[in-house]
Amino acid sequence: MRISPYAFRLLHCMRKVYWRIARPTTHGVKALIIHSADANRLLLVRHSYGDQSLWSLPGGGYKPARETPEQAARRECSEELGLKSEPVALVLEEHLTTNGGRQGHLKIVRLCAISDELSPNGEISEARWAAVDLADLPDNAPVSKWVYSALKAHARAR
Fold first, then answer.
1. Nearest-angstrom CA–CA distance, 89 and 93
2. What is the pairing mode between strands 102-112 and 59-61?
3. Which of 9, 26, 32, 56 could cross-link to 104 by cystine, CB 3.0-4.6 Å?
4. Domains and CATH numbers, the chain
């Protein structure tokens, strides 16, 4: 079943209200996905909710009692993009975040794609492989701070 991008926007707004009231602690992952045939390319996405102009990393929430950050990153990439990745994954960074009334634990995980074929779901409005220096993005395209953070961590981990 394909969920409409409008449903994701509505859920995003409802979740923001919940966070302001309940102030839960969340756990999330962002996946730095390296291209299967070219280690100098990564996958960027635009979500169908929030700032839809922003190029970002795929990812989402997870429950630490149920899965590791590496497992969550692979699951999110499979769900959002239909993308399979190699079993080896590496947590590059960990961040404590506060946003919209919530405290979060964010892990940035590096994955290597098995293929470059993508099948985005309704959560993703656009996905593209880009150079790690981001030179092939359109001029003045806004890029998430997490992309820059992940790229710096990736360079350190090489």
1. 12
2. unpaired
3. 26
4. 5-157 (3.90.79.10)
| CA gap 120, 126 in Å, rounded | 8
Measured distance CA(13)–CA(89) in Å, rounded: 32
Q: Is the entire prediction scored with pTM above 0.85?
A: no
Here the tokens at position 105 are: 């634990």
60-85 confidence digits (pLDDT tens): 999 999 999 999 999 999 999 999 99
In eight-state DSSP terms, residue 36 is S
User: What single letter denotes the amino acid at residue 153?
Assistant: A
Conformation bin of residue 101: beta by default, left when phi > 0, alpha when psi is -120 to 50? left
CA distance 31 to 113: 11
